[in-house]
Design brief:
211 residues; mainly alpha; Cytochrome Bc1 Complex, Chain D, domain 2; 12 helices; 55% helix; binds heme C
Length: 211
């Protein structure tokens, strides 16, 4: 796996012949910036896109996630605290962690919605209010206690991670084990449908409804 030295990412973006020519013609720093992003995310974009939107149903969306949380997640993979399914997560160089976390945290792309079942969404909402709302505030949109943005996350990914926690394959963060105590897998699936169906950004109407 090749990793561009960090200092060179921006330089190279500007010095590449194509970019230089375009920049001279258009005089556009935007082109150079886009190239730098392409280089930065070169080892990630196949799966997470340049803008953090997962390219397959089992790949999580990273856009809009807290920068500090993304860095923690990457470091958990690097230190094997969380065993990554994809090897590259373990190999991300230390000097790249914060830059990648910052990049993906700043992306504002709209997460494409997974197909969800309205009955499960309704059941999931009631369960969510009882068990998950304390930390995953506002339908999982607010990152209270460093909880991730779950609204609009991929359904398949949410279900997979919920099962991984329940079956002991992923370590519970914080006091989340309390929230999962004696919950059935069917209930966790319903909550996943609820999170997946929510917009990642609250609409003004949605905000009013919740008050
Ligand atoms: C081949 C596909 C693939 C590539 C390439 C890839 N990822 Fe992932 N990524 C995944 C999958 C799948 C997961 C779900 C976690 C798991 O199964 O291990 C994931 C999970 C993550 C998570 C945790 C998200 C969460 O909500 O828990 C972060 C952060 C992440 N990847 C960052 C990166 C970064 C940064 C790169 C580039 C250096 C990268 N990934 C490259 C497929 C990929
Ligand atoms: C006491 C606080 C707390 C409660 C209550 C809680 N969570 Fe979490 N949850 C967290 C934190 C913190 C994380 C971040 C995990 C990490 O850093 O890897 C998280 C992560 C997750 C993830 C993984 C997301 C990802 O991107 O990898 C899922 C799924 C999840 N929670 C579901 C739930 C569900 C479902 C409930 C209710 C049954 C719940 N949580 C209740 C704090 C909480």
């Amino acid at each position: 796996m090749e990793w561009e030295p960090l200092g060179k990412i921006v330089d190279k973006a500007c010095l590449s012949a194509c970019c230089l020519t375009t920049a001279l013609i258009v005089g556009s720093p935007v082109v150079a910036a886009q190239s730098a992003e392409t280089n930065l995310t070169a080892n990630c974009s196949e799966c997470h896109g340049i803008n953090g939107v997962g390219t397959e149903p089992d790949i999580p969306h990273l856009n809009g996630q807290l920068e500090s949380l993304l860095a923690t997640m990457i470091n958990d993979f690097r230190s094997d605290k969380r065993s990554p399914k994809v090897r590259i997560h373990r190999e991300i160089p230390a000097d790249r962690v914060n830059t990648l976390a910052k990049h993906y945290s700043q992306q504002v792309a709209v997460r494409p919605k997974s197909a969800t079942n309205p009955e499960l969404v309704a059941r999931g909402e009631a369960l969510y209010q009882k068990r998950c709302a304390e930390c995953h505030v506002d339908a999982g949109r607010e990152s209270d206690k460093e909880a991730p943005l779950l609204a609009g996350q991929s359904l398949q990914y949410l279900i997979a991670q919920s099962m991984a926690y329940k079956r002991g394959e992923r370590k519970y963060p914080y006091l989340m084990d309390d929230a999962y105590r004696d919950i059935s897998e069917a209930d966790l699936v319903a909550i996943a449908h609820y999170f997946a169906a929510e917009d990642q950004v609250a609409s003004p109407r949605g905000r009013k409804r919740r008050r």
